[in-house]
Design a protein that fits this description.
- The complex is a heterodimer of chains A (102) and B (464).
- Chain A has 102 residues and is mostly helical.
- Chain A is 70% helix and 0% strand.
- The radius of gyration of chain A is 20 Å and the shape is flat.
- With 464 residues, chain B is of the alpha/beta class.
- Chain B is 59% helix and 8% strand.
- Chain B is elongated.
- The chains are: A mainly alpha (102), B alpha/beta (464).
- Chains A and B meet through helix 1, helix 2, helix 3 and helix 4 of A and helix 1, helix 2, helix 3, helix 4 and helix 8 of B.
């Protein structure tokens, strides 16, 4: 019997949870806020689904209900992607070491 | 672009996201990590365009929405003050949640483009995946909106509780499952809309009973939910980048909530069920005679610190509210000029989100190697001369170690009371969030400085 592709995706999912577990425990507590903003940004990779929906209009006209939801999702996810990465960058730039000689 | 090739690229962007989080293990590598994250996102988006390959229709609109959203996001990222970070993160969570709902809706309405079957005849597996994604997304959205309103102060931070609350939530959760079952059985869109509507309601009801100072847990929990929602959509779209990211974000948020709960010595369920601090305060506030308190002014504080050889600063949410971090850094600069050793002690749940205090101190140019976590610094209090508590309260309360009756008993606290003297900047003697009186206020070696945190710090600096 062939293995359902779902099982492969499930394997990726489960293994990624473990990777996430170990990677996140190694994040230094002082960077927990940037961690939250960057996870926010990367979870907006959901935009790929929105783009597919937005480009789907060919057969039913550019604006059908499905693609309109797609456009809105692109808009929301784009706010998050740009906002999330840039605000993380801004925060990380503030973390400085002590200057040795003053 | 073939499906296999794009799947490889999605995998690459998933790996880049893992490396982005990995970079956060130290401030030096974190900037490169963030860059890798951006690269991963660019790859994922480009590959999606190439994979669809049809630029004849909506392409221009996709670009417009992408750019307008991006500009708004960039604008917010540059304008937002660091003290508003918790609200911003909550707002961003709500956007991820809503985007997940929208993607699920468009997949449901037009399953052909996603290869999921045809309307009214969607594969059962995909139907389950997309409705789970949509449900968690909707909960994330409405929950984050409430968290945002509470953090922003638009809505009162005190818990809103009513009778039977938990039963209602339970019934709603069960009804979501039942509705998904009927959705799969009948393929009727009415059930799909009901799942989403009830999930919005559930997210709202889940967060209203949770009080302001429990926000670190809530915000990490919503972070986790936004990840699971993304993973649910990832399964629907059979996209490994989304599945990997969803799992990463989901476990990241879960770990942060766990760390926050541990910092308060409370179980996750205790926090989620909410209402903390609303009932306990009567028992401790009553039946206690007024005890004498030593209070001082900026000159006294400056005198104490000038004669100290080491000072530990304990910042809390009050510092963020008063925006006192810059004034604090100036005070510390003066202390350092007098050859006084200064370090900062951060409790895991200080502030309104994980790492909140660290970001504020970093903003005020405090070098991160002077900032320590609870376990690293707790033994140093015994050797320090002065503890300067600014805007923190419950996290220093020794009652957590001595009184098993206290609601905060067992919570790890900063051992400020072991210092030779304690300076407490606070506006009044009112108890902290847990509603427990802090016995530290009445100790002989404590000097209360009743004032706004920022103003007091500035006055001390003048007197140094």
């Amino acid at each position: 019997m062939e293995i359902d592709p779902f099982i492969f995706r499930l394997s990726i999912f489960i293994l990624s949870i473990f990777i996430g577990y170990y990677v996140v425990w190694s994040v230094t507590p002082s960077l927990h806020t940037p961690l939250m903003s960057v996870t926010n940004a990367i979870s907006s990779v959901i935009i790929v689904g929105a783009i597919i929906a937005g480009l789907s209009g060919a057969s039913q006209g550019i604006f059908n209900t499905s693609s309109i939801f797609g456009f809105f999702a692109i808009f929301l996810a784009a706010i998050n992607i740009f906002g999330g990465f840039l605000v993380t960058q801004r925060m990380l730039q503030m973390y400085k070491k002590k200057k040795k000689n003053k | 672009m073939t499906a296999n090739l794009s799947a490889v690229f999605y995998l690459i962007s998933g790996v880049l996201f893992i490396l982005a989080l990995r970079g956060l293990s130290s401030p030096e590598t974190s900037r490169r990590g963030n860059f890798l994250g951006i690269l991963g996102m660019i790859i994922a988006i480009t590959v999606t365009f190439l994979h669809v390959g049809d630029f004849s229709s909506g392409f221009i609109y996709v670009l417009i929405f992408l750019l307008v959203g991006g500009l708004i996001g960039a604008f917010i990222a540059y304008k937002i003050p660091m003290t508003a970070m918790p609200e911003l993160v909550a707002a961003f969570h709500s956007l991820v949640g809503l985007a997940a709902v929208f993607v699920a809706i468009s997949a449901f309405l037009n399953p052909e483009v996603f290869d999921l079957g045809s309307p009214g005849n969607i594969k059962i597996g995909s139907l389950i995946e997309m409705s789970i994604g949509a449900a968690i997304g909707a909960i994330t959205f409405s929950g984050s909106i409430i968290a945002f309103l509470k953090l922003r102060g638009i809505m009162s931070g005190s818990p809103i509780t009513f009778k039977g609350q938990h039963y209602i939530n339970l019934v709603l959760s069960l009804s979501i499952i039942v509705l998904i079952f009927y959705l799969c059985k009948t393929q009727s869109d009415i059930f799909f809309w009901r799942v989403i509507a009830i999930s919005f309601l559930l997210g709202f009801l889940l967060i209203i009973p949770i009080g302001g100072a429990d926000m670190p847990v809530v915000i990490s929990m919503l972070n986790s939910y936004s990840g699971w929602a993304a993973a649910g959509i990832g399964f629907t779209l059979e996209n490994s980048a989304l599945i990997i990211t969803g799992a990463l974000v989901g476990s990241s948020g879960a770990i942060l909530s766990y760390i926050m709960c541990k910092g308060m010595n409370r179980s996750f369920f205790n926090v989620i069920l909410g209402g903390f601090g609303a009932t306990e305060e009567t028992s401790s506030a009553k039946g206690k005679e007024k005890k004498p308190v030593k209070s001082g002014n900026a000159e006294d504080a400056a005198f104490l610190m000038k004669n100290a050889s080491s000072v530990i600063i304990v910042p809390g949410y009050g510092m963020a509210v008063a925006q006192a971090q810059h004034a604090l850094r100036e005070m510390v600069d003066k202390l350092k000029k007098n050859d006084i050793k200064v370090s900062y002690a951060i409790h895991p749940v200080a502030g309104r989100m994980p790492g909140h205090m660290n970001v504020l101190l970093a903003e005020a140019n405090v070098p991160y190697d002077e900032v320590f976590e609870l376990e690293e610094i707790n033994s140093d209090f015994a050797n320090a001369d002065v503890a300067f508590v600014i805007g923190a309260n419950d996290v220093t309360n020794p009652v957590a170690k001595t009184d098993p009756q206290s609601p905060i008993y067992g919570m790890p606290i900063l051992d400020v009371e072991r210092c030779k003297s304690v300076l407490f900047v606070k506006r009044s003697l009112s108890p902290g969030y847990a509603g427990v009186d802090n016995e530290l206020f009445y100790r002989d070696n404590t000097l209360m400085l009743f004032a706004d945190a920022k103003k007091m710090t500035e006055d001390i600096t003048k007197n140094l």
